[in-house]
């Protein structure tokens, strides 16, 4: 295990996640200023998720064969350009195209980064570093949300332009700092592209196998987190009538809570408790708390329950990834890609579902999200050891 390379990857992921999360606080402002209907916040998220679903295993299988570094670089520069196009467009059709491109390139980076981390870690240390990896996402979400909300308070376009410039800076950092560790294909080797996810197989959701259960759990948990995340920003902007700086602050607080859980609580529990027990209990707690937050009338109680949801749900993803990485014996890039597609499917359902039911009740998306976490818990009870 190369700790120097791992630490470099974690710092790079922090910088990348900061950049990738800058636009979230100002996207509701874009929707409102361009006078799009409220459900478009779900549609925008869903389009990225569709691209994630299609491209995640493809990028993963390509990085298995051609190496991780080049796909990390392709992902970050492609995402930067697509975000500039998204932020500067004023009509719906090009915005939808740039959303698809954004999803295509963001998942290229995300899948390759997870596979890179898996390459660098031994199974016994993997949960710890996956927790750290998730912590960089949490901290990046906090910093990016604050920065993006501040930059776009008067003109949301500024956030997208700076986001694009930061991606070019990251490209240079990747080129200088990252080392290729995955064997490159030899001349004459045949390049294969993974497309099996486009032909759904019953075995992928076989509740008698551990991998099938964990893929389905990833889908349901992602529905939960996506429904919450895609709704909270629009709720703050449109229901509470708060500026983008407040949206950024909400993201920052949530990110800091998740950071504490992933850096402090997650690794501690990983040493003291069984992974299978942790994921079952945290998934159940997250679901119950979010359902309660959506039905109580007291704003203070709702806030307490939401904080509890953020804290408990932050532990689920790194544990799930650790379990999957141990089940998969080889082809980590491809496996992470399939997992990415399951996550993308959850993003589509979560974003579209929350977007369209928002008009029926501004708290309904949170209830919807909590129910899927409870469904994930029921499925986890079938998980064999």
From TrEMBL:
One of its GO terms (cellular component) is plasma membrane. This is MFS transporter. Keywords: Cell membrane, Membrane, Transmembrane, Transmembrane helix, Transport. InterPro entries: MFS, MFS_dom, MFS_trans_sf. It comes from the Bacteria. Residues 5-385 form the Major facilitator superfamily (MFS) profile domain. It is found in: Cell membrane. Pfam families: MFS_1. It is a multi-pass membrane protein. It comes from Zhenhengia yiwuensis. One of its GO terms (molecular function) is transmembrane transporter activity. Its main location: membrane. Gene3D superfamilies: MFS general substrate transporter like domains (1.20.1250.20). The chain crosses the membrane at residues 38-59, 71-90, 96-117, 129-152, 158-178, 209-228, 248-269, 364-380.
């Amino acid at each position: 295990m190369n700790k120097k390379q791992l630490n470099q990857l974690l710092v790079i992921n922090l910088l990348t996640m900061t950049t990738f999360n800058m636009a979230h606080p100002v996207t509701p402002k874009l929707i409102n200023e361009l006078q799009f209907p409220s459900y478009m916040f779900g549609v925008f998220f869903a389009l990225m998720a569709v691209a994630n679903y299609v491209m995640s295993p493809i990028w993963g299988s390509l990085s298995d064969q051609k190496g991780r570094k080049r796909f990390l670089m392709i992902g970050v520069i492609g995402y930067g350009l697509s975000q500039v196009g998204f932020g500067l467009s004023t009509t719906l059709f090009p915005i939808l195209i740039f959303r698809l491109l954004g999803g295509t390139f963001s998942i290229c980076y995300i899948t390759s980064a997870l596979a890179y981390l898996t390459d660098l870690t031994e199974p016994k240390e993997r949960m710890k570093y996956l927790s750290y990896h998730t912590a960089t996402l949490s901290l990046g979400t906090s910093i990016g949300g604050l920065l993006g909300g501040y930059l776009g308070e008067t003109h949301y376009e500024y956030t997208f332009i700076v986001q694009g410039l930061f991606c070019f800076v990251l490209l240079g950092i990747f080129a200088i700092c990252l080392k290729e560790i995955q064997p490159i294909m030899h001349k004459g080797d045949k390049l294969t592209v993974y497309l099996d996810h486009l032909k759904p197989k019953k075995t992928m959701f076989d509740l008698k196998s551990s991998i099938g259960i964990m893929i389905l759990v990833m889908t349901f948990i992602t529905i939960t987190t996506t429904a919450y995340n895609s709704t909270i920003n629009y709720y703050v902007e449109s229901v509470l009538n708060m500026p983008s700086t407040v949206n950024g602050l909400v993201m920052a607080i949530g990110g800091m809570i998740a950071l504490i859980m992933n850096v402090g609580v997650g690794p501690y529990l990983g040493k003291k408790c069984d992974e299978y027990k942790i994921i079952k209990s945290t998934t159940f707690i997250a679901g119950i708390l979010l359902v309660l937050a959506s039905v109580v009338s007291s704003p203070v109680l709702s806030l307490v329950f939401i904080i509890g949801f953020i804290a408990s749900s932050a532990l689920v993803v790194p544990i799930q990834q650790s379990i999957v990485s141990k089940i998969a014996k080889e082809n980590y890039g491809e496996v992470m890609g399939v997992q990415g597609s399951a996550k993308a499917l959850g993003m589509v359902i979560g974003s579209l579902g929350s977007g369209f039911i928002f008009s029926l009740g501004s708290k309904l998306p949170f209830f919807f999200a909590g129910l899927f976490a409870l469904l994930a818990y029921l499925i986890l009870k079938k998980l064999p050891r």
